[in-house]
Amino acid sequence: MRIRTVVALTGALTLSLVSGCAQGGAAGSGAGSVTYWLWDANQLPAYQACAQGFERENPGLDVKITQMGWADYWTKLTASFIAGTQPDVFTDHIQKFGQFADLDVLEPLDDLGIDDSAYQAGLGANWIGQDGHRYGAPKDWDTVALFYNKKLTEAAGLTADRLNSLSWNPKGGGTFEKAIAHLTVDRDGRRGDEPGFDKNHVKVYGLATGGAGDSDGQTTWSPFTASAGWNYTDKARWGDSYAYDSKTFQSVIDWYFGLAKKGYLAPYTDYTDGANPANAQVASGRAATAFDGAWMISTYYGTKGLDVGTAVTPTGPSGKRATMMNGLADSVTKNARNKEGAKKWVKYLASDECQKTVGGYGIVFPATPDGTAAAVAAYRKKGIDVSAFTEPVTDKRHARTFSFPVTDYAADVYALMRPAMQDVFANGAPVSGLTKTNDQINFILGQ
Amino acid sequence: MAAVTAPPTRTSPVSVRPLRRRPSVGRVAAWVVMAAIVLVTLLPFYWILRTALSSNTALAAHPGDPLPVDFTTGGFERALGLQSTKEAIAQGGAAGGLKFWRYLINSVVVSTLITVCQIFCSAMAAYAFARLRWRGRDKVFGLFLAGLMVPTIFTLLPNFVLIKQLGLIDNLLGIALPTMFMTPFAVFFLRQFFMNVPREVEEAALLDGAGKVRIFFRVMLPMASTPILTLGVLTYITSWNDYFWPLMVSYSDSSRVLTVALAIFRAQTPQTGYDWSGLMAATLIAALPMLLLFGVFARRIVSTISFTGVK
């Protein structure tokens, strides 16, 4: 009897699961719904608010938002294109755009009438593929600035004005190197620019490490390479060759990682993605300053016991300061189940109305000027001054913004440059070795 | 030794009490080493608890503090979905939240389904391989065992295509199906046991007029209850911990199991700093059912493994 019961129960359970759960369909999309994927959980409430506005304007259409973490997001998205379970619309990143364009999985958005001039400069054009079609509608942007621990900078006698007017050069390091040397303190309390400083026993580093920077150096070396006048590739986008073999690039990298040898920049071993990123080094008092992105504003300012300020990146040999300006976009998938609804939703996401709503949450800078203004106001309301991030975008005379390199084979470039840069930073390999890596990269690009 | 040399002159209560043996140096050293191993083993669990009870916004400022930093139960509240989005963000957590109970039920359903079905089917197969005589039996078994050598990653894609064609993507049954019927290990494990059951038992049942089916259900299965229990616990833990396959198949909350949910929860705020306290709290709660299961059955599992091993 007992066995029969077990068998019967198993059968019933299986049957109920087959009949009960099988109704769902792959990604849960129906005729009147649009599926939308994004990776940043902190933006979820803002986009849910946008979706409500969209649904009001488009009765009969509803938006189903799925949020997944950054790492799983891309694995799953790529798998979903192959399996045919892709969402109708997804948040796209410029680094991944080339690969998706290559896979031919994106729907052209030319008929949406996206006007590049309605967005912050440079954000719209990045999403035009090599075939001349548009594949993404501008969504939001971020820049990089210098976060600093106010307690430590004040103790070192560095005012906010001074931190905002630093300059550097690859030969002597300029006032920037002087500042971080002065912020560095060894275990005996001697500063980095004082005689007898012990670079092997540093208590507080002047600058936190964000790792070796891989192929883009977004929050590590890129403010320096770009303000020295260097560009990743031969063309603004879809370039044919990379320039990691350039003398300018290599001299800047040599100087930048040389800061670690002098004891001013935290060593490579201090950096752990996740467990000990730059913000944790600043929070724990291990480092006085850190280059980090606008997406980290709330984290730095929200850290208990940390009084933080922000400054623009230092002026380089080109006479300008530089910061990477990275813009995200929304893309429609080629095999979207509800293509019409998907395009309507993307158009709404790119509209001033939705971007102002998102800006109001004070988490990202939306791509339209009004959306950006709403975000700045929301930050101000929280008592946070974000001008170090917005000024480089508006002040073209003193600052230069640049984008992630947009090329084919971005994943291969990353795979080659990551260990090469780590070798330079962690093992002290000569920067001239990057020439060989660059040759390999350009060989792949020439295929 | 000490007891022998003690002078038995007085009959006071003190001398009646058995004297304690003086611990030898080796014994003390063994105890010290054991205590150290236990400490090292338990330390990660303590660190999980300490982090879970810390405030996420203060953790980075005191990374090495042995006690919870800025004590709060916010991590547990976030893990159990008791916090509003606003509170969660203010405490350095993610807005996405964790529908803990939903994922827990999904995990229980998937693990139970896999365990019950797999053990039942594997037991039948093991019985056939061990006690029934049929042509080519050993060859088939050899082929079957070869299945043990095939890495799971090779079967991933065909399995995915099949599940998709069955329309079971984003479905709990889709997650369970590939391992639901049997695994070579389970069949092998139970076959070893059935082979060692004395033939006389089966013959006695045959003489009593029982058929093969009846013998299987009434004689063999009850006799195998201990190895089945062991296998059940092991299978349950394995399917509970499985990550990659559920990640591939599940697309929404309706089919998300705990392991996948925890990984997604962890990855929610990678750029803005992980919600370590929420994640550690959730991990602790998620591990609890397995710890309980193991705690209850640990002794039986160990004895079964040694039993089958000696035989």
TrEMBL record, chain B:
One of its GO terms (biological process) is transmembrane transport. Residues 104-297 form the ABC transmembrane type-1 domain. One of its GO terms (cellular component) is plasma membrane. Coiled coil: none annotated. SUPFAM superfamilies: MetI-like (SSF161098). It is found in: Cell membrane. Keywords: Cell membrane, Membrane, Transmembrane, Transmembrane helix, Transport. It is a multi-pass membrane protein. The keyword Membrane applies. Its main location: membrane. It comes from the Bacteria. The keyword Cell membrane applies. The chain crosses the membrane at residues 28-49, 103-129, 141-163, 175-194, 215-237, 277-298. Belongs to the binding-protein-dependent transport system permease family. This is Carbohydrate ABC transporter permease. It comes from Streptomyces aquilus.
